[in-house]
Every structure is written in structure tokens, then in C-alpha cells.
Specification:
By secondary structure, this protein is of the alpha/beta class. It has one domain. Helices cover 44% and strands 14% of the residues. The protein is built from nine helices and six strands; from the N terminus they run βββαβαβαβαααααα. The protein has helices spanning 26-35, 52-66, 86-99, 116-122, 124-131, 145-155, 162-172, 175-178, 183-191; strands at 3-5, 9-11, 19-23, 39-43, 72-78, 107-112. Strand 1 and strand 2 form a beta hairpin. Helix 1 (26-35) crosses helix 7 and helix 2 runs parallel beside helix 3. The chain is globular. The protein starts with a strand and ends in a 9-residue tail after the last helix.
Length: 200
């Protein structure tokens, strides 16, 4: 019997898909580890001192070291304040992985603009419901979203913490809603064609 498991790959046998995820940030890693136990998370470093080429090379190095024949390779990183757009960075990482031997159809990349908090803010339905902001529209593309999310939580009497509030917010959002406002999420879902509770 067919079963839809986890990220939603339809499996004919009773086993989970093999997903290798290269992920920056303790919030993002904790979210995946808490909700997708079968996803192998490989922590990557990122920040203002990392060039696009250095970031891609780091991911390629980890990819080669794992020598994995996974069903999917997911990259989840921030654009930070690089001049290059999320799409340019995504395309560069994709080309680097393909040149390193990864199958192009297995590569799925999310480069948040500018940080993962922007992805959370892009789910307008979540923000409206969580913070009772009836007229909210996502308008934070290209700016650091953490500041705005902190302000929203503070209005509710809570001090935002990534590993608590951020992880809970990630679990509450749905990527198909985020994709309506976020080009980065839309680009990710254009290749990641599996069904999943986190997507829809």
C-alpha cells in the first residue's frame, strides 16, 4: 500500500526517505531535528564574512565527505547582507553541487532573504492570527525580519527567542502561504515537489 511519509514522498515500502540537509542556524537545525527525525542535518557556517563562493565550497566539501546517495539534498541558508540576490546564490550553490556530482533533480535550495525570520513574516495568515494584525501585509523583503518579529512578540508581552519562539513559529507556518509573498520560498517549492504538512 502506498503511504505518504514525512516530507511526503510516496513510498511503496515501509521506510522513510533519505534526506540530507545542509542547514545554518540553531533555530533551523532544531526545527528540523524536532520535526523530521529521519532528515540528516549537516550544520553549515554562514555570515557577513562568508562570500557566496566560500559558502558554496563549504557545502560541496560536506557533500563530498558524506558520499551520500540520498533521495534529496536540501540546502537552507540565509542571504545575509550579500549583494547577490537569493536566486543568484541558490543558482550558484546548485551549479556547485551538480559539478561535484549531485543529481540536479535531487537538489532543493532555500536561500532566505535576508534571514529565516523573513520566511516566518511572509506567512501573512500566521502573522494575522498570531498577533491579531488584521491589516498585515508582508513588506520586509530585503531587510532583517528578526527586528520586526521581536517587536510583534514584545507587543504580546514575550521576549522573542529563536530556539523557542522561532522554532514554534516555523512549525506553525506553511510554505505554500509563504511562497505567495516570498520569491525565495516560491523558488524552493518550484523544485521541491513533494507533499508535506509543512508545505500545505
Amino acid at each position: 500500500m502506498k503511504r505518504v511519509l514525512g516530507w511526503g514522498i510516496i513510498m511503496h515500502q515501509m521506510h522513510y526517505p533519505n534526506i540530507l540537509a545542509f542547514v545554518e542556524g540553531s533555530m533551523e537545525q532544531l526545527f528540523l531535528n524536532n520535526n523530521f527525525h529521519y532528515v540528516e542535518v549537516i550544520p553549515v557556517s554562514n555570515g557577513v564574512s562568508w562570500t557566496m563562493a566560500a559558502l558554496a565550497q563549504q557545502i560541496v566539501t560536506f557533500f563530498k565527505a558524506r558520499d551520500s546517495n540520498a533521495d534529496a539534498f536540501v540546502v537552507w541558508v540565509d542571504r545575509e547582507k550579500r549583494q547577490e540576490s537569493s536566486q543568484v546564490i541558490s543558482d550558484y550553490i546548485r551549479s556547485s553541487l551538480i559539478n561535484a556530482g549531485a543529481e540536479k533533480d535531487k537538489i532543493h535550495i532555500l536561500v532566505c532573504d535576508i534571514m529565516t525570520e523573513n520566511i516566518i513574516l511572509a506567512d501573512e495568515q500566521y502573522i494575522i492570527s498570531k498577533f491579531n494584525l488584521d491589516n498585515y501585509k508582508y513588506c520586509h523583503e530585503g531587510v532583517g525580519g528578526k527586528r520586526y518579529l521581536k517587536e510583534m512578540f514584545l507587543e504580546c508581552g514575550e521576549h522573542y527567542r529563536e530556539t523557542r519562539h522561532g522554532v514554534s513559529a516555523l512549525k506553525a507556518i506553511r510554505l505554500d502561504r509563504c511562497a505567495k509573498a516570498s520569491p525565495a520560498v516560491s523558488s524552493f517549492l518550484a523544485t521541491f515537489g513533494f507533499s508535506c504538512w509543512w508545505i500545505e
